[in-house]
Amino acid sequence: MQVLRALCLEYKVDTHDWTYFVPVLQASLNHTPTPSLGNRAPVELFCGLPPSTPLSFCIDTKQQRIVEVPLRTEAITTWLEELRTSIQDMHKPMTVAREQQTLRNKRMQKYARRPNFDVGNYVLRSRVDQKHYDKLLVTWVGPYQVVRADKHSFAVRHLLTGEERDVHPSRLKFYADSSLAITEELREHVSAQGMLLSVSTLNEYRWNRAKRDYEVLVSWKGLESIEDSWESTQQLRKDIPVLLTQFAASKNDQRFLQHVTAAVKHRSRRK
After folding, report:
1. pTM (2 d.p.)
2. How far does the signal peptide extend, from start to end residue (predicted)?
3. Between the N and C ends of the chain, which has fewer C-beta atoms within 10 Å?
């Protein structure tokens, strides 16, 4: 009954006229091979007749009568060619749209910005450092030598350690061609990029309203006084919590001391 109801909906026939589809359904069941009969159709086993093909019966386009299709090789070949042509015509707009999209992608790649360096050249690499807890600092370090060009990245080599790493082209900038002379001064410059600074003294402090945090003026060992920098207590509590607490206790400022003590304790609890 479900099949008959589906046929009525498909061909827009009133459900009271479902009996018109009984011969079609009956013929389909009798000529369809089933696993329970050894993949044979009922008409073969009970009548000894060859089963008909699915094209033996059909309903015409006007849905007026059931017509019988003769089994002619020429007709089947013609129907098959028409079916293939119809499928190709159906997929043709999608194929054309796909080809047009491919051409647009190629045009976009044509005008994309290409790297101005190649294998053997020397480049600078951008590095993102956490200068403050709420700000990122982008610096250029290097130079590095480009040793390999991949599809989406370049392999660069450190001048001192020889370490190689893959870097996206957008993070590299041309520095010099392959004729660059690696002098001792350049080597010292590269080695100083990974230098860790040691705190000499903590000098002054101030309240930063924008950050809602205190900042401390730090003097660094080995650097001039003009290179002193203001560092937030949020950062200093991670590196020098004891020295920061001692500095706050010596300033006779209870608000500053409470702020530093709370920050250091919060850091200790998180550990």
Report:
1. 0.37
2. none
3. C
